[in-house]
Specification:
It is a single chain. By secondary structure, this protein is an all-alpha fold. It is about 75% helix and about 5% strand. The chain has 4 helices and 2 strands. Strands 1-2 form a two-stranded antiparallel sheet. It is elongated, with a radius of gyration of 18 Å.
Length: about 140
């Protein structure tokens, strides 16, 4: 499947069952973890302990490897929706933290991030199911 914007070169997705999905997942997890640490620890100047840092990196790594597994199985719609859910959740969480909140406000920001991540996965699963059903109906009417 080629994704292209008019006037630009086309981007090729990795093939089904390609190990490139897991490499891309690790790279995205590292990039998101670095962005999180950069904003949370450096720009917003919050104290981020080593144990918390390792936990956050592990969570991002596991989430993006789960997304890579979906891509490995050929579920590209799920990959896009789940990635957008993680990125939008991270943006929401960082915007809450930017207001220099503490206590329950930070917890609400973290829970909102998790809700957006779950919503991205759920939307991706629903769209994958709809796509599968569409292909089944189209196949029966041929």
């Amino acid at each position: 499947m080629n994704v292209s914007i008019e006037g630009e070169s086309s981007m090729k997705w990795p093939q089904r069952r390609s190990p490139l999905w897991f490499i891309a997942g690790a790279v995205l997890a590292l990039a998101v973890a670095v962005i999180f640490v950069l904003f949370y620890g450096v720009i917003f100047n919050h104290n981020l302990g080593n144990l918390n840092l390792c936990g956050i990196v592990l969570i991002f790594f596991l989430l993006f490897q789960l997304i890579a597994l979906a891509g490995f199985w050929g579920r590209r719609i799920l990959v896009v929706c789940a990635t957008l859910g993680i990125i939008s959740g991270l943006i929401l969480f960082l915007s809450v933290i930017a207001r220099n909140v503490g206590g329950f406000e930070g917890l609400v920001g973290a829970l909102s991030m998790l809700m957006l991540i779950a919503a991205g996965f759920a939307l991706g699963l629903i769209l994958e199911l709809a796509h599968f059903l569409w292909l089944q109906v189209k196949r029966k009417h041929k």
